[in-house]
Amino acid sequence: MPNFAAPDPNNTPRVNPLVNFLSLLWLIPKREYLRRFRFNRTVREKVAGNEIVVLPEVFNPVIFRTGKYFADILNAAELPDGHGRRALDLGSGTGVLGFVMARRGFQVDAVDINPEAIRCIGMNAELNQLDDSIDVHFGDLFEPVAGTRYDLITFSPPSFRGEPKSKFELSWRAVDVFERFASALPGALKSDGAALVLQTSHGDEPGLLKALIDTGLKVEVYARKHFGVEIFSIYRLRHPQSS
Description:
Layout: H1 17-37, E1 43-47, E2 50-54, H2 66-76, E3 86-90, H3 96-103, E4 107-112, H4 115-127, E5 134-138, E6 150-155, E7 160-161, E8 173-174, H5 177-188, E9 189-200, H6 205-213, E10 218-226, E11 231-238
Parallel strand pairs: 3-4, 3-6, 4-5, 6-9, 7-8
Antiparallel strand pairs: 1-2, 9-11, 10-11
Helix pairs in contact: 2-3, 5-6
């Protein structure tokens, strides 16, 4: 359930070192299994009621957990009726967040900078019979949909700072994505709209939060879960005048 607490960039959640060590005892062999049999190959997953194909150079929302967690939270959220409303899923990957919103009636723009993700979203939209509700765009952040304003925006940005070295790394490493996303967000959000943004405690969460707070939008903790080795937080952003 949402708790809507105001976040503090100087006091972001951290994992206790002992808890982290104990969690790694089971996570290390699990990672080895995933590396051998599920990673860097085409696999099928099921997330929030959607059947998805994950291509080798596309971020797997189940293996890395962020996408599945975000989709499950979004699937259970008390969203407004999406009919007649428009949603945007940035860094869409396999498209699963967009599919959750499409099933709620939203017309969805799915954007990704990875050409393999664009292929993936199109395949999965057709597989789930949602291709009429999903418009797929190749490009960087808001550029392909410039000028459009949205009722709902979702984004799970790359968690780590740095230059991506491959198509796959586009999903988890970027130089200044937090700041560029934040600077354009207020203009892309309708006056009564909301954005949901996920970050992990493994990443630069203080940097993301600072960028979000600097937008002047109202920033709240929407959901948070401890996974042992890391903590996932979803932040909700709205215009200050929103109720």
